[in-house]
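Recap from last week: sequence in, structure out.
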Amino acid sequence: MRAVTLNSVPATPSVADVPTPQPEAGEVLVKVAVSSINGFDAATAAGYLQGAMEHRFPLVVGKDFAGTVEAFGEGVEGFTAGQAVFGVVMKPFLGTGSLAQYVTVPAGYGIAPIPEGLGVQEAGALGLAGTAALDSITAVAPAEGETVLISGATGGVGALAVQLAVARGARVIATARPGAEAGFVAGLTDAEIHVVDFSGDLPAQVRALAPEGVDAVLHLAGDGSQLASLLRPGGRLASTIGLTADAVEVSGVTVHTIMADTSPQTLTALATQAASGALRVPVTATYSLEQAPEAFAAFGAGALGKLAVTCS
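Predicted C-alpha cells:
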C-alpha cells in the first residue's frame, strides 16, 4: 500500500510503498478514505517525540482516519465489513499511522461509527483536534457569559474550540493576525468573536476587553505564562502543549494539562454535533496522499484550520 513514511527522525515525510497491515486480535482494519495533518504528526517528523514513544521504522505517520471497515481480528464485536467509521490511531508506539491506504486500530478505543449527515472528509479531520478542543473546553468549564481567551484560534483545535465555547454561551477572545487569519476566526460562528493580534501588545488588547481578567484560557499556542497572567483570580487554564502548574507564576489559578482522550463516547459526541451542523469541521484545503509532503509544508507554514488528505 502507499503511505506517508519516515525512515528516521527528524526528517521530511515522503510517500512510499509499505506492506498492508493485518489486524491482530482486538483490532479493526480500516480502508482509509481521508486523514488529516495534526501537530502531533509534525512533531513526530521533527523528532520531538524521540524518547517519549517507541518509533518503529519505516514509520507510517498519521493519527486521524475516516473510512470503512475492511476486516477485523479475533474477538472483535460491534463492527461489520463496509461500515463507515472514523477516529484516531491510539497505540503505545509510533509506526502504523493513518496517512496510508489502510490502518489497523484497536476496536475498543479511538474508533466510532460515522453518523448520517457527516461527510467522510469532515470525519477524517475531526478526531484528534475535536477531542483536544472538547477536552480543553470541558476542563475549564466556561459558564454562560464568562470570557474565554483562546490562543491559537486559527489552527484545527482552536477553530473547533471557538465554536464549542460559543455553544456554551461564553464570550470568546481569540488570537489571530489581522487580515485572513482574523477573518477566518470571525467566520467560524454567527456569534461575535473578539479577535486580538498576538503579534502586537497582547496583554493590553485583552485587558481592554476584560479589565478584571478573563475567566478561562485555552493555551493552544504562545507564551503560557503570559496568558496565565491575564486570568482573573480563580481563573482556569487548559494547555494542549504541555504547560503545567509548576510553570505558571500566577497564584490562585487552576492549570489543566490536556492529553486528548479519544474515547468512543467523545468521538460520538463530536460526530453527532458535526452531523447536526452545530459544529463545523474547518477543512480549508484537501491534498491527495501523494501530495502529503506538500500538506506537511503548508501546515508548517501556518495554514488555517484543518488540512485533509485523501488516501483512497
